[in-house]
Amino acid sequence: MKYGIAIFPSKEVQDIANSYRKRYDPNYALIPPHLTIKERFDAEEAEINDMVEELRQIAKDTKPFSLIINKVSSFYPVTNTVYLKVEPVEDLFTLSDKLYQDKFPKPEREFAFVPHITIGQDLSTEEHSDVYGSLKLHKFDIEETVDRFQLLYQLENGSWTVHETFKFGEDC
User: Fold this and answer.
1) How does pLDDT run along the chain (172 residues), one tens digit per residue?
2) Motif HXTX 2 at which residues (predicted)?
3) CATH superfamily of the domain spanning 2-167
4) In which region does residue 127 sit, left (phi positive, over 0), alpha (psi from -120 to 50) or beta (all else)?
5) Is the CB of residue 135 less than 8 Å from the CB of residue 118?
6) What is the residue extent of each domain of the chain?
7) Which one is catalytic: 116, 128, 138, 163?
8) pTM assigned to the model
9) Residue 163 annotated in active site
C-alpha cells in the first residue's frame, strides 16, 4: 500500500489553495491542500505499525513551529507546477529529515525538499506561463503555527486519507 506523511494547513490556507486548485490541479478531488514532508512510499501493514511508534516519538520530540507563506513559486522548467512557497524554517527541515532516517522505507529522497503547497500541476507550458505570470505578482501574508502532521494512505481510487494524526509535544 502507498503511504505518505504531510502537514495539513489551516482551513484559511486550504481555502486559498483550493481557490486555485479547483481550476489548475487535476488532483484537487484526491487530497486536500497539504505540505508533503515525506514523499509517498510502499509499506506493509506490519511495517506501518512499527513506524507509527517511531512517528509518535518524533511528534513528541517536536515543538510547534511557524508555517509562513509570502508568495507563489514554480518548479518550471522541471515540471509545470505552481505552488504556494512555504518559507524554509529550520524546524520544518528537521522534521522532514527525521522521516528519511533508515527506520523508514525509502530512505533516499527522490527530490530535494522544497516546502510548498501545490496549487497547479500538469499544466501546459502556455497555461503555466499565464497562471504563474499572474500569481507571482500576488503577495501573501500568511503565518500560522503548525502543531501536527498526518500519516496518510492511498485508496484504490487514488484518493488519500488519514491513517493517524501526530500532535507535536504530546504522547499519542
Assistant:
1) 999 999 999 999 999 999 999 999 999 999 999 999 999 999 998 889 889 999 999 999 999 999 999 999 999 999 999 999 999 999 999 999 999 987 787 767 878 899 999 999 999 999 999 999 999 999 999 999 999 999 999 999 999 999 999 999 975 4
2) 116-119
3) Cyclic phosphodiesterase (3.90.1140.10)
4) alpha
5) no
6) 2-167
7) 116
8) 0.93
9) no
